[in-house]
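Q: Give me a backbone?
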Amino acid sequence: MLLLPKLEFRLQPSEAGFLDPSIAAGDRKNISLDPGATTCDATALEPGQAERLAAMMRRFSDQAMALVEGLAPPYVGHLERARTSFRPVEIAGRTYSPRHDDRRLHVDAFPTRPMRGRRILRVFSNIARDGAARDWRVGEPFAAFAEQFVPRVRRPFPGSAFVLQALSLTKGRRSGYDEIMLSLHDQAKLDEAYQADAPKTPVAFPAGATWLCFTDQVLHAALSGHSALEQTFHLPVEAMARPERSPLKVLEKMTGRVLA
């Protein structure tokens, strides 16, 4: 995890109204923008305003890409820009099911978007104007976490990955890696003893700060905060300086299987 405490994403004066949590649709916590889209999903804004919000989110996405490429030049040409998210709603005080509760320690895995070993790199920026920090807990190293939960992982039914893809329930075919990562995500969130007793380090990201981390490897829980922007990138393991430290290689060594 890399924290840049004074690297602020600056809003234009006309964008201040987007910090109102009421712009999110219904009970949705994230407003999302797909690459190349001209408007946002899950917003209560009128079409013209939604397009202006999308323009703000694209500007953040462009700056996030420039930041990562500037910090890690070997990633240039390898980063895949994925979804941009805006989270205007306060985390604390909301009700979630345990599996969807990001206040519980977890690693990221996507049920509908198989990664097949690719990394999930995310850039966050706290743009809260009231000074509210974004309060996280960061857990133990990935390998120590995986050693506890991998023995519990059940093999999927033969052919299930093909069926999910054929029914368009996943965007591509799940690999063994995806099945394990989804199981690790769910098991950690649903294990009350682990949530209570697992090692946790508090980290507060101040307003005006930007931070980056591989959320498929850093155990994290977001306890409170509002008005955060997030850009997701996908990165092939081969583009890493130390690919043996990726979750894919850690899990392959642990299971003795090729997983992607």
Q: What stands out?
A: The beta strands are 2-4, 31-33, 80-87, 119-126, 134-138, 201-205, 210-214, 220-224, 228-235. The first helix runs from residue 47 to 71. The radius of gyration is 18 Å.
